[in-house]
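This section describes the prediction task in plain terms. A model, or a person checking by hand, is given the sequence of a single protein chain and must write out its three-dimensional structure as a string of tokens. No templates, partner chains or ligands are provided. The sample shown here is typical of the held-out split.
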Amino acid sequence: MKTVGLLGGMSWESTAGYYKAINEGVKNSLGGLHSAKIAMYSVDFDPIEKLQHEGNWEETANILTSAAKNVEASGADFLLICTNTMHKVAPVIEKSISIPILHIADATAEVLVKKGIKTVGLLGTAFTMEQDFYKGRLEDKYSLEVLTPNKKDRMIIHDVIYKELCLGVISEFSKKEYLRIIESLSNNGAQAVILGCTEIGMLVHQKDTEVILLDTTSIHAQKAVEYAIN
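The expected answer:
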């Protein structure tokens, strides 16, 4: 079994979900008392969040590159960056380590392609919904049409992530707002909606809506299990 490298802490709430999902996946696949071999480095999210909103991506890349090197030095065979937004600096990190990165957008796109979905809605931080590093990868590499909410709804999604979900706060009002926005994306042609922030799966679940949801945390974790075992 390969050793899974996790670069987490962004936020720790969702990183805990990664740890649980990967271990459950290995146990379900191999049985007995098997659990995943994991090397994890968990960063302090507060300074990274401030740098994100200042637009200082270069410094966030420096912090995460240093952390990724520690994960590699701990014996990881491959790396998962346990956040959608910080895949913005994945190319910088990739150049600084010798182990492969399992990209969260690739893992998600592979599921979409397998399902035959061509048009998909995207929820996430404003950075993920508005910048090209994520949307562009889905569009250019996988020929997907990506729909995002209007500006007002994008800010609702963004604020709930940082002010509630990253702090472990689950609000019924916010859940209703997210479900409204998901329904709106579906009405505008989305065949499915990507929960493109690793915390969103804490708030909305497939049982809450008939719209197909793709929880990137779950998908990314499952990809890690397959890579580790196979």
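For orientation: DSSP finds ten helices and seven strands in the chain.
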